[in-house]
Design goal:
Elements: H1 2-14, H2 23-33, H3 43-51, H4 53-56, H5 71-77, H6 93-109, H7 115-128, H8 139-149, H9 173-196, H10 203-223
Helix pairs in contact: 2-10, 5-6, 6-7, 7-10, 9-10
Length: 232
């Protein structure tokens, strides 16, 4: 009985490490952004099985209710990409987005296959709009996380048209950082609004959130000269 209790507790404590949006939602974000290989967007979650916290901590950042995400915070997180140090348990999602871009560019420059870094990038940009990946992993988050990860999972593949792309002009990493800051703060605010109201996201809110990720992802891909299908 004690062993069963330990197993259940371990699973409960690690739900935050398992998903942000579920697979179909991540792929829908990538597809709406124009990624032909949208399936690559699920790879970062698969990597957690073997990489553990080396990958886990790239998927969120725990902000306090009154905490503001700033450019300085994003920049400070960049060198923390893939770090497993104890202080990284708050996560470094924002820096991971920029770091994956840098990894893509560096890998291209040395003549190696770089496309998998686009898969990681797509996943992290998707995670950015998931409200509970921008708030504290408290009792509310633990209880609601899995449900909200999958809030539109069973329908999103057939509703790509509900993901509205806003054209974003990006000319530098600074521009990308500005958009990360904006989406992170908006996602955090929604997460704590849900907590105050003791509720899950509505489907309408979920589509608004993933539209932000898809719009930013498309803009980043165009900035990197990565082929996108603009008819999506």
């Amino acid at each position: 009985m004690k062993l069963l209790t330990i197993i259940i507790l371990a699973i409960t404590l690690n739900i935050h490490h398992l998903q942000a949006w579920h697979d179909q939602t991540h792929m829908a974000i990538a597809k709406a952004a124009g990624m032909k290989k949208a399936y690559m967007a699920v790879g970062a979650d698969m990597a957690k099985i073997k990489a553990g916290d080396k990958e886990n901590f790239n998927h969120w950042h725990s902000n306090e209710p009154d905490e503001i995400v700033t450019r300085e915070k994003v920049i400070a997180q960049i060198p923390k990409y893939n770090s497993t140090e104890p202080e990284e348990k708050k996560g470094h999602l924002y820096g991971a987005i920029i770091a994956s871009i840098n990894e893509f560019r560096t890998t291209l420059e040395i003549g190696k296959f770089a496309e998998y870094h686009i898969g990681y990038l797509a996943h992290y940009v998707g995670d950015l709009s998931m409200p509970l990946h921008n708030t504290n992993y408290n009792d509310f988050n633990k209880a609601r996380h899995l449900i909200n990860d999958g809030i539109i999972e069973d329908e999103v593949a057939n509703n790509i048209h509900k993901i509205i792309i806003t054209e974003i002009e990006i000319n530098s990493l600074d521009d990308i950082i500005d958009h990360i800051v904006k989406i992170a703060n908006e996602s955090k605010e929604l997460g704590y609004k849900m907590e105050r109201e003791n509720r899950n996201m509505t489907k309408e809110e979920a589509y608004i959130q993933i539209s932000k990720s898809a719009s930013l992802l498309r803009a980043i891909l165009k900035y990197l000269n990565y082929p996108v299908e603009l008819n999506q």
